[in-house]
Design goal:
By secondary structure, the protein is mainly β. It is 4% helix and 55% strand. It has 4 helices and 41 strands. The chain has a 26-stranded antiparallel β-barrel. Strands 1, 2, 3, 4, 5, 6, 7, 8, 9, 10, 11 and 12 form a 12-stranded antiparallel sheet that branches. The chain starts with 7 loop residues before the first helix and ends in a 5-residue tail after the last strand.
Length: 778
């Protein structure tokens, strides 16, 4: 039905085609007259919005049967037409009913509203004029100047017709008809876009389809066109001789938005996806990709939603020359098949049990980058079964990786089968508030041409947290763990400290920790400050760590995030021993629009025994380096985060990481800088020094228009990393582009440039044209 707060000029314009943003099919319309009409409609729309009448009474309130008393009463005939009006005239000789003043007719879900309705009961013809609205049971509303309908209110002809679809979108034509529920329009236009601005004034839609004939079938929920063109910003640009699209959120067979690209290696690229609707919950998209410089490629994607979860399968395939190694030592395979397979899914079997899996595999190491599919250098394949309840967690998993790094041996890449982890939490153990966390873990890692490792352990951690009468937060932790390891072919691991020893090895671990925080809160400079000193003591017996293989604790580094951790190693294979004191302070200052958070800390180890922590990690000496973090925020306009590590001897910056965000959602600048200056031996590949700068941003210069860009620059030189090929200022990649995006259209052009060669994935420029029509079915 008609919305009372909707201006009538927007519901029923004097020219229905004008409701789609001023597009006209009649020839010879003067442009100045058109502009005047638009301005007038804008002014009148505001007046009508203020003076709109109160809601008319529902047609069920005053059912009227103008038939002679000899006919069957309306209550006995469910198909009887009912209507209400301010005034009714009945010509008994001609059997004509004339209703005036907010007239409403209703029959089996079809509704008609108009200022005047003339109903010829002999012929069954219903003629309506003035503010006409016809609504079908599906919610679609048709507006027009005059309309002729049958008394079933299903079939008829409307002059100057505008159809507002319940699923979204508008159809307009000089003349339209409806028969058996199907709407046919001649010289018509369709758009799902908004045709009024924020002030409710008419505006040109971002895009629309004009056609010699348009047929809308509400049962099939589809619109069919003949002699159509797509108009973008009022310019007839794309001819579509025969075309159709679904209405609303439903899915159907059909073409999707094309992709247009250009790259130095592959040349011009055009892709036209076609979607096959297999079922409401399943669909297949086939995308042929045509290139000017290489053979075509076919992409297929299958998606499905089931009663327990969802999954997706994607595959690429083509034939081209393949070069896997560096250009200096290139070996090329001619006309080789190349492809990529990617599948993932998750299924929730019941409230506790779930299965998650993913498969990613490619034929060679440069395929994904050459065809701009992905820049990942490691592909991970995994399967995991999980059970989660409020107090326990069980995971049974397996995984394997495929390396895409040039120079890495695939035979040295690990696979795990199985990886089992079980955890259980028990509250109020020993004392009220005591919490016990139990864990069982098992892992088997194998390599086709490298070291194999199996591990199993059981651990228990008890925590008790108390608040003293003076406000200190005190946490007591007791930890115990027993490990069993088995390793073989350890000499295949090049880094000696990672190998461990062949055969079975057992290890017992224990630790006791006391952590004290004392938050102090008060006023400062018109705001609130919180100062929290913190001290932690951890004691543990000496361990023979080097007999155990190191698979998961290699990337160790002192940071603000792990300063107070029970074990500063990131995994299970290495554990800190001896006794250490860790101390630090957190400080926070808050104003209504401004906050500043900072923390800083250091650690001191009592033992004089040599540590297994590598030099340069900040933890190798008895006194650790100093680590901290600063965060500055101003409203939602500015955020700056700095993480750092200072050398304990000369306060040199060993780690400096800065991330800044400046601006709003529409216009912003992203800055990033990282420098790792740890002086770690290059043999520890997980801890190599590097320096990098990142910049990205977006400038919105109009409501829907913006320009954007980003760049990554490698600042590493041979002094920082002797194995690096960078010269101290080596751009890695950048992109620059512009975009238009509103609620109906996304349009953009992006220029990207890669500065590195990897096999047949060569450096060079590429261009991407983005054109997506929103709300054009799915």
């Amino acid at each position: 039905m008609l919305a009372k707060d909707e201006p009538r000029l927007q519901r029923r314009p004097s020219n229905a085609i004008g409701a789609l943003g001023g597009g006209h099919f009649r020839q010879g319309v003067d442009a100045s007259v058109t502009r005047s009409l638009l301005l007038a409609s804008c002014a009148l729309a505001a007046i009508v919005a203020i003076t709109a009448p109160a809601a008319a009474q529902d047609l069920q309130d005053r059912p009227i049967d103008p038939a002679p008393a000899t006919e069957v009463p309306a209550a006995a005939e469910p198909n009887q037409v009912q209507f209400s009006a301010d005034g009714i005239e009945y010509d008994s000789n001609a059997d004509i009913v004339t209703a005036r003043g907010d007239v409403r007719m209703h029959r089996e879900g079809d509704r008609l509203r108009a200022d005047t309705i003339v109903w010829n009961r002999k012929t069954g013809l219903v003629t309506a004029t003035g503010n006409i609205v016809v609504t079908n049971p599906g919610g679609d509303a048709a507006y027009g100047d005059t309309i002729e309908l049958t008394d079933s209110l299903k079939d008829g002809v409307i002059e100057n017709m505008l159809v507002v679809l319940d699923q979204g979108g508008r159809l307009a034509a000089d003349r339209g008809s409806r028969k058996d529920g199907v709407v046919t329009l001649d010289d018509a236009a369709y758009t799902p876009c908004s045709v009024v601005d924020s002030n409710n004034c008419p505006k040109e839609p971002s895009w629309k389809i004009t056609a010699a004939r348009v047929v809308y079938d509400p049962v099939r929920k589809r619109i069919f066109y003949k002699g159509a063109r797509v108009n973008i910003f009022g310019i007839a640009s794309i001819p579509l001789p025969a075309f159709s699209n679904p209405v609303g959120d439903g899915t159907d067979n059909g073409f999707l938005t094309p992709d247009l690209k250009y790259s130095r290696v592959n040349g011009a690229e055009a892709a036209l996806p076609y979607y096959f609707r297999i079922a409401p919950n399943r669909g297949l998209t086939l995308t042929p990709r045509i290139y000017s410089a290489v053979l075509p490629m076919l992409q297929a994607e299958y998606r499905a939603l089931t009663s327990t979860g969802a999954y997706r399968v994607t595959a690429y395939g083509t034939v081209s020359d393949r070069t896997d190694t560096l250009i200096a030592n290139a070996t090329t395979a001619q006309n080789a098949f190349r492809g990529y397979f990617d599948a993932s899914g998750k299924f929730q079997l019941d409230p506790y049990w779930s299965i998650t899996g993913s498969i990613r595999v490619t034929t060679d190491r440069t395929f994904l980058r050459r065809y701009d599919i992905s820049r990942d250098d490691i592909l991970r394949n995994s399967i995991k079964v999980e059970r989660i309840d409020p107090n326990s967690y069980l995971s049974i998993a397996g995984w394997a990786v495929q390396t895409l790094r040039v120079g890495d041996r695939q035979g040295l890449q690990p696979y795990a089968l199985p990886e089992i982890d079980y955890r259980r939490r028990i509250e109020n153990i020993l004392v009220d508030g005591g919490r016990l966390n139990l864990q069982l873990n098992s892992l088997a890692i194998g390599r086709a041409a490298g070291q194999d490792t199996q591990r199993a352990f059981a651990s228990a951690q008890w925590d008790l947290r108390r608040i003293t009468r003076f406000g200190q937060e005190v946490t007591l932790t007791a930890f115990a763990r027993g490990d069993l390891y088995n390793a073989s072919d350890t000499v295949a691991t090049s880094v000696i400290s990672y190998r461990g020893s062949d055969g079975f090895h057992a290890r017992a671990i224990a630790a006791l920790a006391l952590d004290v925080k004392w938050p102090l809160i008060g006023e400062f400079l018109g705001g609130t400050q919180r100062l929290t000193p913190r001290v932690q003591v951890v004691t543990a017996p000496a361990l023979s760590n080097l007999a155990i293989p190191n698979e998961d604790s290699r990337a160790v580094d002192l940071e603000d995030s792990n300063l107070f951790a029970l074990n500063r190693f990131p995994g299970y294979d290495r554990v800190e021993d001896s006794t250490r004191f860790t101390y630090g302070v957190d400080w926070s200052f808050t104003l209504p629009d401004f906050t500043f958070d900072a923390n800083i800390g250091q650690s001191y180890r009592l033992s004089t025994r040599p540590t297994l922590l590598p030099d340069g990690t900040g933890l190798s000496d008895r006194v650790s380096d100093i680590v901290g973090r600063n965060v500055v925020r101003y409203k939602d306009l500015f955020t700056l985060t700095q993480r750092y590590r200072l050398d304990k001897d000369g306060l040199a910056l060993r780690r400096n990481e800065i991330d800044a965000t400046i601006g709003t959602r529409g216009t912003y600048l992203l800055l990033g800088y990282l420098r790792l200056n740890r002086n770690i031996t290059p043999s520890l590949e997980d801890l190599r020094d590097r320096e990098e700068a990142r910049v990205g941003g977006r400038l919105q210069f109009a409501r829907f228009w913006s320009v954007f860009g980003s760049a990554v620059i490698d600042l590493t030189d041979r002094r920082e990393d002797p194995t690096s090929l960078a010269n101290g200022f080596s751009p890695v990649r950048h992109r620059i582009g512009f975009a238009y995006e509103d609620d109906c259209l996304r349009l953009g052009l992006t220029w990207k440039r890669d500065y590195q060669d990897t096999g047949d994935a060569r450096r060079g420029d590429s261009f991407l044209l983005t054109l997506a029509f929103k709300n054009l079915g799915r």
